[in-house]
């Protein structure tokens, strides 16, 4: 059911162009977007989200990292910690992604918000706008939670994957 909803949303919204752009630029980010998409839709279904919200979430989670198509591969694939200037470049991806999607006039405000704010944290320590608690919509919060979970369980150039159980414990 989760995969059916995800595929239906992708087909209805013309996302294939955006997803393909990410895949061509960086296959690991493409895989990450697919993982975030599938887990987000399944999580939302378990939480009893409405069909409309699940479809919106499916689109948002599929393109949440589209801005990384503008991030240099040397930064995305760096095997060690990023320096301050590299981190500043990486932290532009939500703004870049939202601008890319906004330019098409095809995505609603909830999707653009999730793309722009999926690195915001309840305590205001996130980026790009340092939003706090209630200023972060629920759909965006769900994308953030699943994005963090996926990052923990995925293998990255700079870290080994964590087990799903341990990642879930960390989230709790």
What keywords describe this structure?
about 170 residues, mainly alpha, about 65% helix, about 0% strand
Helices and strands in order:
Elements: H1 2-13, H2 16-25, H3 27-47, H4 51-63, H5 73-76, H6 84-90, H7 93-102, H8 109-117, H9 138-153, H10 164-171
Helix pairs in contact: 1-3, 1-4, 2-3, 3-4, 3-9, 4-8, 4-9, 7-8, 8-9, 9-10
Summed up, what is this model?
With 172 residues, the chain is an all-alpha fold. Helices cover 64% and strands 0% of the residues. It has ten helices and no strands.
Structural summary, described in words:
This protein is an all-alpha fold and 172 residues long. The chain has ten helices and no strands. The longest helix has 21 residues, at 27-47. The chain starts with a helix and ends with a helix.
Bulk shape = globular
Strand residues, percent: under 5%
Helix coverage percent: 55-70%
If helices are DSSP runs of H or I spanning 4 or more residues, what is the number of helices? 10
Tell me the structural class: mainly alpha
Low-confidence stretches: none
* Strand elements, count: 0
Described by strand count, sense and barrel closure, the largest sheet is: none
Oligomer: single chain
| Integer-rounded radius of gyration | 15 Å
């Amino acid at each position: 059911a989760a995969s059916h909803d995800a595929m239906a949303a992708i087909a209805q919204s013309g996302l294939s162009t955006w997803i393909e752009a990410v895949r061509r630029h960086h296959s690991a980010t493409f895989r990450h977007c697919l993982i975030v998409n599938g887990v987000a839709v399944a999580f939302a279904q378990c939480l009893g989200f409405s069909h409309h919200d699940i479809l919106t979430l499916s689109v948002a989670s599929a393109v949440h990292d589209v801005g990384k198509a503008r991030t240099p591969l040397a930064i995305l694939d760096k095997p060690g910690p990023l320096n301050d200037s590299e981190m500043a470049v990486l932290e532009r991806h939500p703004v870049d992604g939202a601008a890319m999607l906004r330019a098409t006039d095809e995505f609603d405000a909830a999707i653009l918000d999730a793309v722009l704010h999926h690195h915001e944290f309840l305590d205001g320590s996130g980026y790009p706008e340092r939003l706090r608690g209630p200023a972060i919509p629920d759909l965006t919060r769900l994308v953030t939670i699943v994005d963090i979970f996926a990052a923990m369980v995925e293998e990255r150039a700079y870290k080994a994957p964590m087990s799903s159980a341990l990642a879930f414990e960390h989230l709790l």
